Amino acid sequence: MGQRGRKKGANGERSRSLLLAIAADEFAHKGFSDTKISTIVKRANLSQPTFYLYFESKESVFQELIQLFRSKLFDLTKSSRLEPGIDLTSVPERISQVLAAIFHFFKENPNLTRIGLFVGEEAEDIKKQLSKQIMDNLISEQENGYFHLVLT
Amino acid sequence: MGQRGRKKGANGERSRSLLLAIAADEFAHKGFSDTKISTIVKRANLSQPTFYLYFESKESVFQELIQLFRSKLFDLTKSSRLEPGIDLTSVPERISQVLAAIFHFFKENPNLTRIGLFVGEEAEDIKKQLSKQIMDNLISEQENGYFHLVLT
Amino acid sequence: MGQRGRKKGANGERSRSLLLAIAADEFAHKGFSDTKISTIVKRANLSQPTFYLYFESKESVFQELIQLFRSKLFDLTKSSRLEPGIDLTSVPERISQVLAAIFHFFKENPNLTRIGLFVGEEAEDIKKQLSKQIMDNLISEQENGYFHLVLT
Amino acid sequence: MGQRGRKKGANGERSRSLLLAIAADEFAHKGFSDTKISTIVKRANLSQPTFYLYFESKESVFQELIQLFRSKLFDLTKSSRLEPGIDLTSVPERISQVLAAIFHFFKENPNLTRIGLFVGEEAEDIKKQLSKQIMDNLISEQENGYFHLVLT
DNA sequence: CATGAATGAGACTTCATTCAT
DNA sequence: CATGAATGAAGTCTCATTCAT
Q: Looking at the keywords, is Chloroplast present (chains A, B, C, D) (predicted)?
């Protein structure tokens, strides 16, 4: 039997994430209103009630995805905050690393990104908040003397 | 009867364009699926059957708007085709005039533009076709020796 | 043609009151949860969407019926308020008239009464308010010297 | 193994009566249709399949409760049947004892009583049967010469 | 030219109930 | 003894569209 000890209940989480992934895909490609629960569950080979076993409503899955995008993304930018006393020569490199990480994240999570940046009503908010956080990082870096911002 | 001579057809056309304009606004701001006929006619102070007096279906109004955008826009770019033998010194000015005309058109027709470039499923097609036509113009101009393209 | 001038739109109100009456009957006999919109419209020879043409939701028809009961009933008790200077000998007769009117109303509107007094969640409230109003009337009558209350 | 001798069947019966009691409470307070199996098992800290381990269906628990009410109640009234040759002076007392027992039963079993007398579709039947049995008792007592019924 | 009235089709959601472990 | 997971059936509600006047 070895490493196949899981059995009972093991598929609950699997079903949930399957549904979540398919939902992300549908929302990303068709928008909220054109995404049908019936399509999601059909693609997951499950029945409609199963969807409601794991999510409260269509709206709530959508919100969950938006939140997921927000938290993953802001974790990324937050981790980029530079600390005083750092080796000055490494600063530009770190900045570019963060931007690279962001674009890498976008590329690795295209559905989530589409939803977060283009589909949701909060899209504008998210973009603003993202810009602000990046800006703040840059500014705090600037204040720490790492470099000078030149606005044009 | 005297001053009641105007009438037949007059209000018909008025209602039609009113509906079309409101539809454009709704489609532009809410997308296809979230646009409801009931909202359109309410805003126009008309009834639902009246809508079907002028349009075959929701889909068909949408297509009509897409067509309108396409034709207006391509008329614009077509009219910019330069003819051989033109005064060479006026070329840069004409090119900038065309681009200005396009952006002016975008600004003057925000709803149509949103629909044509972002809402419709044909959006990608339209953008490609638009780029191509502009490119073609530039190239034909280039071939006519007006200038040299430098791709970077 | 004579007195049959009504035609267009005349049946809207008819459909509405038909649905309302049937709804009252169903709610009275089966309670809120066991009353199905599908049954109501079937009995009215109408389709489900028609129901929503006239009512916002199942809940809202129910509330409308409760309100109807309340207002009709309280109109009845309100109209019973005795005014000072009335012929004293007529007081007992008027009181009994009001009670008779109430019971007559109950008998004439059995569905509404069942809903108002037994089905709705507000039933207890309504009963209390009804008692209070009757009491108030009696007391004001008593204060006006029409008679003396003897509580036992 | 020692002190783990009690077990098999013990918890089973415990779960069963727990579910039955909660079901009674829910049915009594919300009626049949608004009572959900999911609520019952949640309150019992059990799962839905467990419910079906002990009962065949929602309907069947309901019927079981109705039967329970009926049998308990009719046991009560049956035990009140007076036998010929009894001491005549004790008759009124015994009658009042039976009525007291009935009302005591109602008070001690409020949920069952609500279900039996007000919720179930058989409510009317039960009430009739109850009246009849009480009546029969009275009549048989009357026939036995214990007293004379005076209907007004 | 216009509308009041009505509806078929289909979406989201809930619930009693079962399967497999 | 008990449960995690799943579902058929049915209910409420919405929307594009049509009929008859």
A: no
Q: Which two tokens mark B142?
A: 């280039």
Q: Domain range holding A122?
A: 10-143
Distance separating alpha carbons of residues C96 and D137, to the nearest angstrom: 39
CA angle C138–C140–C146, rounded 5-degree value: 75
Chain C residue numbers touching D33 (CB-CB < 8 A):
31, 33-34
Give the SS3 label for residue A39.
Answer: helix
Q: How many separate helices (H) and strands (E) can be counted in chain D? A: 7, 0
- What amino acid is encoded at C50 in this protein? T
Chain D partners (3+ C-beta pairs within 8 A): C
The type of residue at A96 is S
Please tell me the distance from the alpha carbon of residue D36 to that of residue B86, in angstroms, as a whole number: 84
CATH number at residue D115: 1.10.357.10
- State pLDDT tens for residues C50-105: 999 999 999 999 999 999 998 988 888 776 665 666 666 666 677 777 777 888 88
Which tens digit of pLDDT belongs to each residue from A2-40?
Answer: 344 444 555 889 999 999 999 999 999 999 999 999 999
Two structure tokens written together for C29:
């006999």
Distance CA D130, CA B33 (A): 62
Q: Looking at the 3D structure of chain A, how many domains does it have?
A: 1
Q: Is residue C152 part of a domain?
A: no
Instruction: Indicate whether C2 belongs to any domain.
Output: no
Q: Is residue D149 part of a domain?
A: no
CA of A34 vs C1' of E8, distance in Å?
20
Whether the CB of C48 is less than 7 Å away from nucleic strand E comes out as yes
Distance D32 CA to F9 C1' (A): 19
The answer to whether the CB of D38 falls within 8 A of the CB of D48 is yes
Return all residues near A67 (Cβ < 8 A) that are at least 6 apart: none
Question: Quick check: is B40 in a domain?
Answer: yes
Is the distance from CB of B88 to CB of B146 less than 8 angstroms? yes
Hunting for tokens 């009757």 — which residue is that?
Answer: C134
Determine the Cα–Cα distance for residues C113 and C102; give it in Å rounded to an integer: 11
